[in-house]
């Protein structure tokens, strides 16, 4: 995209975020009986007339913001997500929706490039990375229904929504596999297979990232309180974000390749039901009761967040279903301490991160600790201890006006 097209897309993304915030403010202000889709639609139309810069957002994109906002509340009421919030300028992902596929007018101009028409932006070029149903390949059952523009540190990207008719897959005849996720060994399977990766950035890129972070810290230290951020500091921040985005894309690529290989090989994949949000909580504590080993816990939290276990499980969920397999979750406590050979949990059996030696005098089995945990995960599933999630997510909600047990 040219600089003029980038500025137009940026303006639409900021307008879409502002439209969301205005809708949220309107929703909280109005009485419950007036929070209807018709009233919200009227408020959106009036806002586009009264506020000049909202006019850069196409009308259909504004309607898409409204539908997304209403769906967010439905997800909240159904227990599938938290309540919608205001979108901040810094941490919000910039995006614009193109609801109707016919407006795109997609053509392929080269083996690796295509052209698409974006409302109020113009004719833009995009990288052709996957086959799209355009021209003679498009029909009523296989067509593009819309697109979404998303911006990250590497620039603007376009994701197309495709409606296609797929044959329902037959049952997967592959073997069962338990999975243990970790930091040192990212994925270990019950049959002894492991999937590992190196650093997401090369040594040269890591040195550059450190140098940029030090430069940003120095320039920030010389900035006076209340003074605007200089262009040089903004440029440094952009370079840092670009390197981190490159690392994230490499991590995503590894996760996609790994989960595709697992889903196509195994018929039933069993994982632990980890509460990752609790695992990465800070250990700082309070002033009265300060935490211990705070630096070590912070490093562990960064490593856990970097592995993105939740995203790996989400990928396995839809890929196993696509291949005709199933994904099951079992309780996580005790899987790394129990011996998979005798079934007993003996203190001190896990001698190190990689070595497990059963201290039961009648057993004495030894092996890799990660594979032992994966075998325990699969054993729990075969014993019928798979968790049955609630609608949308595995949560337990108590009825209204019922005090928790601790308060009775």
Structure description:
Strand 2 and strand 3 form a beta hairpin. The chain has 408 residues and is α+β, with helices and mostly antiparallel strands. It has a five-stranded mixed sheet, sandwiched between helices. The protein has a three-stranded antiparallel sheet with strand order 1-5-6. The protein is globular. Helix content is 39%, strand content 16%. The protein has helices at 3-29, 37-50, 59-77, 203-221, 231-265, 276-279, 294-307, 309-322, 369-382; strands at 95-98, 107-108, 113-118, 122-127, 143-152, 155-163, 176-181, 187-189, 194-195, 268-272, 326-330, 355-357, 366-368. It contains nine helices and 13 strands.
Rounded Rg: 26 Å
Give the distance, in angstroms, between the N- and C-terminal Cα atoms.
62 Å
Strand order, largest beta sheet: 9-8-7-10-11
| Class by SSE composition | alpha+beta
Strand content: 15-25%
Largest sheet, in brief, is: 5 strands, mixed
Q: Which regions have little confidence, pLDDT < 50, spanning 5+ residues? A: 390-408
Order of helices and strands: HHHEEEEEEEEEHHEHHHEEEH
The shape, in one word, is globular
Average pLDDT figure: 84
Number of beta-strand segments: 13
Helix fraction bin: 25-40%
Number of helices, counting only DSSP H or I runs of 4 residues or more: 9
């Amino acid at each position: 995209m040219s600089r003029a097209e980038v500025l137009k897309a940026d303006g639409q993304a900021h307008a879409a975020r502002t439209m969301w915030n205005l809708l949220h403010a309107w929703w909280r202000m109005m009485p419950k009986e007036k929070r209807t889709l018709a009233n919200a639609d009227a408020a959106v139309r009036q806002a586009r007339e009264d506020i000049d810069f909202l006019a850069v957002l196409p009308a259909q994109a504004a309607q898409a913001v409204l539908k997304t906002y209403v769906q967010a509340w439905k997800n909240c009421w159904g227990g599938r997500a938290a309540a919608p919030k205001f979108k901040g300028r810094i941490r919000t992902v910039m995006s614009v929706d193109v609801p109707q596929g016919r407006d795109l007018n997609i053509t392929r101009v080269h083996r690796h490039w295509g052209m698409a028409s974006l409302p109020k932006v113009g004719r833009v070029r995009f990288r052709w990375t996957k086959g799209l149903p355009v021209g003679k390949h498009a029909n009523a059952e296989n067509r593009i229904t819309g697109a979404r523009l998303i911006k990250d540190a590497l620039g603007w990207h376009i994701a197309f929504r495709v409606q296609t008719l797929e044959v329902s897959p037959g049952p997967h005849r592959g073997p069962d596999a338990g999975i243990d996720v970790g930091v040192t060994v990212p994925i270990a399977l019950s049959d002894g297979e492991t999937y590992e990766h190196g650093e997401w950035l090369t040594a040269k890129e890591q040195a550059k990232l450190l140098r940029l972070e030090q430069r940003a810290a120095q320039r920030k230290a010389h900035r006076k309180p209340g003074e605007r951020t200089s262009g040089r500091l903004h440029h440094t921040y952009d370079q840092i974000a670009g390197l981190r985005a490159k690392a994230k894309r490499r991590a995503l690529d590894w996760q996609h390749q790994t989960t595709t290989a697992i889903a196509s090989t195994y018929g039933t994949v069993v994982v632990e039901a980890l509460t990752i949000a609790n695992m990465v909580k800070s250990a700082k504590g309070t002033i009265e009761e300060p935490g211990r080993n705070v630096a070590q816990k912070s490093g562990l939290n960064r490593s856990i967040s970097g592995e993105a276990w939740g995203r790996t499980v989400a990928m396995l969920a839809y890929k196993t279903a696509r291949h005709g397999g199933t994904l099951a979750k079992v309780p996580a406590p005790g899987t790394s301490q129990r011996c998979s050979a005798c079934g007993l949990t003996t203190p001190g059996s896990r001698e190190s991160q990689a070595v497990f030696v059963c201290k039961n005098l009648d057993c004495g089995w030894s092996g890799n600790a990660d594979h032992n945990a994966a075998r325990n995960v699969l054993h729990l599933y075969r014993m019928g201890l798979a968790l049955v999630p609630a609608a949308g997510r595995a949560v337990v909600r108590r009825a209204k006006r019922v005090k928790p047990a601790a308060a009775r």
